[in-house]
Amino acid sequence: MGLLSDPNRRRALISLLTRLNTPICLVCYMAGVAWFMGLAFEPFTLRTYMSENAMGSTMVEERFPAGERALATGREFAAHKKKVGGMPVDWLVKTMQARGLEVFTQSFSRTLPFPDENKERYMVKGTNVYGILRAPRAPRTEALVLSAPCSPGDNNQAVGLLLGLAQYFRNQIYWAKDIIFLVNEHDLIGMQAWLEGYHHTNTTGMDWSPLQGRGGSIQAALSLELSSDVITSLDLVLEGLNGQLPNLDLANLFYAFCQKIGVLCTIQGKLQRNDWDSVSGYSHAVQTMMLMVMKQASGRPWGDHGLFLRYHIEAATIKGINSFRQYKTDATTIGRLLEGMYRKLNNLLERLHQSYFFYLMPSLSHFVSIGYYMPAFGLLTVILLLRALDLWVQLTHIFTGRYLSIYSACIGNSPLLIKYVSSQQSSPGVLSVLTPLVISHLTGVALYTLPIRFQEMAVEHFPVSETEAVVLTAIAVYTAGLALPHNTHRFLSGEGTEQGWRVLKLVAVLYLAVLLGCTALINFSLGFILALTLVPVAAFVTPHIPKVLSAFILVILSPACTLLFSVFFFQELQEMPVSFQDGWLLYLSVISQGILDHFLYGSLVYPLIALLVYPCWLLFWNILFWK
Amino acid sequence: MIEGLALLDLGVSPYSGDVFHETPLIIYLFHFVVDYAEITFMLADVITAVALYLAVKDYNKQVFRKQKFALEADRYPLDCLELIRSPKEMYYIPLKVAMFYLLNPFTILSCVAKSTCGLNNAVIALFILSTIKGNVLLSAIFLSLATYQSIYPLTLCAPALLYLMQRQYIPVNFRRASFWWFIVQYAFMYLGSLFVIICLSFFLLGSWDYLPSVYGFILSVPDLTPNIGLFWYFFAEMFEHFRLFFLCVFQINVFFYTIPLSIKLKEHPVFLIFMQLAVISIFKSYPTVGDIALYLAFLPVWSHLHRFLRNIFLVSCVLLACSALFPVLWHLWIYAGSANSNFYYAITLLFNVAQILLVSDYFYAFLRREHHLTYGLYLKRKDGSEATLVLK
């Protein structure tokens, strides 16, 4: 261990790192951002390929004939839906039974913590209907799921196609796994109830009736969203809860079948382009990748498939898009595509695990794997570690400085020396750091618990609705945290002030590094976006920089403002830019959706930001205002 | 534990299934306190903390007394007076040790998980207390209880012997009869109490089948559930043919460091206890975070070494990051299915390497301080120029 035990080389390396600390940090930051932007450049990406051998080789002709009949069933479903005013349970049960499936229903109910203004629901009650097609010759140990959400007024063609496929699949003999055809009500809430019932878990506090029939362990699932009779392209949605992605083989399967059947396929709603060496081609790829990053960072499931991923089931959502193109695809072709995909999935011997679980897709035929995108994040974390090393060296110099001065001042006078030494020796004041830490985390806990708890009180005293009360309380607690440093100094028994803020900054920088590392492992996009804004804050904040300007910059780079800018940026990327008013309302609804996602499905973004990221940022705010 | 109790109530030997691997005395203890399990574990932690507090207080008094004698005998060179420890600085150390143990997140985790490691720690802490107080009989009894629970505290015999001999002013010399006589006495008490406990277990359960279940399990490592130790991954990967060889190598590794460390540290047996505890908790077959908490609790006792520690920053960063990454990678492997065992084992390896680095760093700092106390703090070569101390 030459580097660690040879004192001369150590000293040389450490002095190099301390002298050049700021330039190295700047270079690392630029390199990290440049590396990330370079990921979308086509020569740096890999073409997608099918990794699972069991899905590779069958040359099968798809023969699904009944597209028109499926659309007619869809229209019947729409009519019954309108008549009943919700999910036509009896009609669905009868239709599925007529097609030879084993039909079961599950009822569920949930009272949301506060009304959901986007979907206008508060006390949700519904029923899921599902039919199981039993595999004719195989033991019932594995299953595949095809689901279509039942939404008011939409998605009728998907349910029709689902029923048409059920009838066609029933007549085939090659199924080795059970196929479950699921129609869930109230989209994600119904899906969560069904999955919890299927797996006998109850993590979100929902009330549901137990499932009467099961099919074995689910290997893969597809969710259909189809709202028009003819489509021009099919869109694939991959992002699930907490930024989890299905195995890349599922996306490869979809892409392979779209190529075979000749349907246009998109990802993030964007068609891929061939001119990667032009500026507009590159920016198109960057936009697609940034859309995926934003969607993954939000931690919410962007389709009904998002909830399957938590149970180790690979799932994706296929959306049919009808836009202004000449070539239209009809329902029979979509049926053939789904039939082909399910026949391939039928061949699986084990769960999809050969291909990547962590990837970014700048287009549907190219991907970037974790080994290529992690260095971008690593470069940003190195900045934090360099800063920590720099602070440590400064702190040890303060100590050895004391020792040397004592020695040179009092040489030869032993008893007095002992007394003087004992009065000067003090270990690094780790305890003085404890107060800002505890107070910041208490503020984080307040940000997490108060909005829900005090919504009744807020509604009594202010003329706002419950959702607005929750969101505005959250923003109020967040802003109140900014006033803290001016008050905590009364409780602090600040040791030598020069040393005190350095110790606090060391602890805060290491805390941020560990936090960002753990976040990036679970949800890379969220970790990267937080790193982009928080690492500059952590690296450059000291009590000695101009206060007003740096306070302003710190607020701009805080998690709440990052979220605000991301909302505007996301709308820009989707080519639907919004005005400031609309953007602000959208921002408030994003906060309320985030809180609801946490309580309904167990999304971790809101607790992470409220309980860990916000207190960390408050520590840096504290350091800025250190006296 | 619950399975063992259930089987016992049914009248079947608890060791007949392959699930239960605790000793019979523990089953009987829990037979009575199973309804108050949380209180038992909290009590065990409190006993450990109090025992460590009293032990360290006594040890500090002895250190200070030895230092005073050495100062009066003028054995220290003049320029190393800053290395002398004062009572004021040593006053809070016992309290810090107790707080380090009780407030350590690892201790809290193992208490919440109701791991029997808490009871093992209590027995070892009582052993340390009785050794430092100089009570030979109690020290032998507690050591035999600790060995009865898991075999590895056997290596703590050596530091206990060295300390007790030092306290009774018996010189550590192979040629002296008093040395051998003391070893015989201690061995007699130790083996005698071990024999009594083993026979008691036999009479409690009526059969000898707890011996292979408990000790055979620890030594032959049949269960390869991932934990924070080094054994499981190796043994999952290797062929059956070589299993016995690797088993011997790994187990000898735990016991091997006793002899060289005892020879080097024969003047400082309490530091030897610390080193041995650390070696046991890193290299044992089924380590838990409770073991780590026990030896980390000793760190405030050596806080005067902090100016000689070279890698403390790196080590504490790595330990902190690994402790945070353990649950993340476990979740990714087992629940999300996106990672595999290599990720988790990488973190385990890193964690153990960091612990080894921590222990060796403290060892270096301790030896360096002793060297300075003998040869002076600011070293000069023969021609008077400044010299640096390099560990080769």
Plain-language structure description:
The complex is a heterodimer of chains A (627) and B (392). By secondary structure, chain A is an alpha/beta fold. Chain A folds into two domains: 53-270 and 299-364, Aminopeptidase (3-Layer(aba) Sandwich); 427-627, no CATH class. Chain A has 22 helices and twelve strands. Chain A has helices at residues 2-5, 7-19, 21-38, 67-84, 89-98, 156-170, 187-199, 248-261, 279-298, 331-346, 370-409, 414-424, 430-453, 455-461, 466-482, 485-488, 497-522, 524-540, 547-556, 559-573, 580-601, 605-624; strands at 46-47, 102-116, 121-133, 142-150, 178-185, 207-208, 217-225, 233-237, 265-267, 314-321, 359-363, 366-369. In chain A, the strands form two sheets. Chain A has a nine-stranded mixed sheet with strand order 6-2-3-5-4-7-10-8-9, sandwiched between helices. A three-stranded antiparallel sheet of chain A has the order 1-12-11. In chain A, helix 6 (156-170) links the parallel strand 4 (142-150) and strand 5. In chain A, helix 11 (370-409) runs antiparallel to helix 17 (497-522), helix 14 (455-461) crosses helix 15 and helix 15 (466-482) packs across helix 21 (580-601). The longest helix of chain A has 40 residues, at 370-409. Chain A is globular. Chain A starts with a helix and ends with a helix. Chain B is an all-alpha fold and 392 residues long. Chain B has one domain (1-303). Chain B is built from 18 helices and no strands. The mean pLDDT of chain B is 82. The chains are: A alpha/beta (627), B mainly alpha (392). Chains A and B meet through helix 2, helix 11, helix 12 and helix 17 of A and helix 17 of B.
